[in-house]
Amino acid sequence: MGEPTIFKKIIDREIPATIVYEDDFCLAFEDINPQAPVHLIVIPKKEVASLDALEDADEALAGRLLLAIRKIAAQQGLGDGYRIVSNCGKAAGQEVMHLHFHLLAGRPLTWPPG
Ligand code: AMP
Fold it and tell me: Is 83 within a domain?
């Protein structure tokens, strides 16, 4: 293993974050550079580099992540809608190599994204 990612350090409470949700599999916290009034990062506690690095054995983890997102959206009162983004790989703009979902809401979100 190389140097732990910034998200691993948040999981391990080595650096602070505003955590809004936690269960056995997942953690969600506020993005430090928000792109919308609501901008959360949802991550698995397991160290997985990206969506592309998921394996068949991660089926339960993948499902738990999506269900956690749904629960977080409900807790945050995002009944009007929200967007989930997972940048996968450098060409997609992934900067932190720990699988994560951006949860964005609170302003009109246009399509296509940049
Ligand atoms: P990505 O470009 O998809 O890898 O997104 C990484 C996201 O992590 C960016 O939106 C950053 O603003 C966010 N980020 C980086 N460091 C932190 C941190 N310490 N706490 C919260 N969010 C962070």
Answer: yes
Which of 19, 60, 8 has its CA nearest to residue 41? 19
- Is ligand 1 within 6 A of the CB of residue 86? no
Give the domain CATH number at 88: 3.30.428.10
Structural domains counted in the chain: 1
Q: With respect to residue 16, please indicate whether it lies within any of the assigned structural domains.
A: yes
Q: Look at residue 110 and tell me if it is in a domain.
A: no
- The secondary structure element, H or E, covering residue 48 is none
What DSSP string runs through 49-71? -SGGG--GGGHHHHHHHHHHHHH
Q: Is residue 114 part of a domain?
A: no
What pLDDT digit, counting tens, does each position of 65-113 carry?
999 999 999 999 999 999 999 999 999 999 999 999 999 999 999 999 8
Q: Is the peptide bond before 37 cis (omega within 30 degrees of 0)?
A: no
Catalytic (active site) residue 100: yes
